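Step 1: inspect the first sequence and its tokens.
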Amino acid sequence: MKRNLYIVALIVLTFFVISFLTNIIGPLVPDIIESFDLSLTLVALLPFAFFIAYGVMSIPAGILVEKYGEKKLMIVAFLISSIGATLLASFPGFATYLMSLFMIGTGMAILQVAINPLLRVAGGEANFAFNSVMAQLFFGLASFLSPLVYSYVVVNMADTSGEAGIFIDLLSSLVPPDLSWISLYWIFAIVSLLMVVIIGLTNFPAVELKDDEKVGALETHLELLKQPMVLLYFLGVFSYVGTEQGVSYWVSEFLQTYHNIDPQTQGANAISAFWGLMTAGTALGLVLLKFVDSRKVLIGFSIAAMISLAFGLFGSVEMALIGFPMVGFFASVMWSIIISLALNSVSSHHGSFSGILVSGIAGGAIVQLIVGWIGDNIGLRFGMLFLFIPLAYILSIGFWSKPLINNQTVSKKAD
């Protein structure tokens, strides 16, 4: 089949939008706590509402995509996202925020399931690995930019000189003066609607799923869940997302609490650096995996991430502003290595196994609740210490994993 570069570009744009909507919550945490007068446990319910949607929707989404096709489901996903964002923007409040984030999370879960097989078909199987990495780089770019957009919007909305511009003035007219951060959700609603229009006007190629990409029946999932290896890798994904979100979600509040850092400027910049270094680490990881066994890379990067987290939690303000972003750098390879080790450890039912693994994204919900609860009782620093547990589990994968196929390195290729 001829490559469809327009569809590839559309999928890359979709990855960008998914990331932009997903990873903005962290920079907002101090504002959310102040606006709604929340405890750390209650504010942790927000990522819970978002990421639990992945746990609930990932497998049903796969079934729906097979039945109705990628285009229809992508349109539905962005419509749900737009409605969710509009709900919060129109009726700001903690309860509507929970509903809004669950709806946005549902849309993002559907998109994650729909776009990967579409990317394989549109870009060609031979280019699938390259296109997947390119999509992840744009995913990282959006995560890097979203805190900067937040900082730009709220700082300029606070400017009373009248020189902020038409766009900022329009946003200011739509939200209460003390809830300027809510304006981001008007942006999300508009962006999601634009994606609906773009996708609706696009002719999609027919996607014929390989046997390994099909979701499979309930019996297949139950059969897989009886295998200890499947559960162990599910916990790996669970631990990774819990760690990634545990740092990016809480770092702004931590810096404000312990170092008196302004969350709307330096705090947002720290989170932006976290995602920016994660993107840079992804590029380095691609090179390393050509020369080193993926399990050894996972071990080395996991240890380095734990050291960086320790510097962030217990170091000076200067060390914290370096340590936390460096966790992102060293976490960059974890997702791809865990997923590849998992799929290379089973000989069949890869589509169903993928659905189970993606459900592990719910780790971003559960871990935040634990960190928030501990933070309310004995302090956020101790709450974030909990993140060493999922990091230690990720480290262990490098020792106990025994894939049927190892990643190909330069030396193995020469042999």
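Step 2: inspect the second sequence and its tokens, then contrast the two.
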Amino acid sequence: MEIFLSKRVMRQVRLSVADAIENGEIDSLREDLVSIVSDDNIEKIERRIDGGNFYEFISEILDEWSGEDFNELLELLEAQLSDADVDLKYAPPSDDDEKEEVVVEEEEEEEEATADDSDDDL
């Protein structure tokens, strides 16, 4: 069985992970991870996993996660799903996503430079 996550879904998960890292709260991340899988696929996965409960399955993965890295969470998801004979496929980050990250970083550097310049005027 394969589950494919689109670029839009990956962007949603990335934002949810960033929020969880920033706030230290994983409840909404858990809900988001459950919601990205269709009900039909959840039923199929539940037949393949120990315990038979997808929500608990995701909770166990989040318990293993360090809470610090998006890629680590994806690796855990892939590994645990693989153990249940489910291949997780997802769209790699697009060039647009990477450009957005670079633009944000550049804007932050400009703000820091402006703040440093105003300190010199005092």
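Step 3: confirm your contrast with the notes below.
Helices lie at 7-23, 27-35, 39-48, 54-64, 70-83, 95-121. The longest strand covers residues 2-5.
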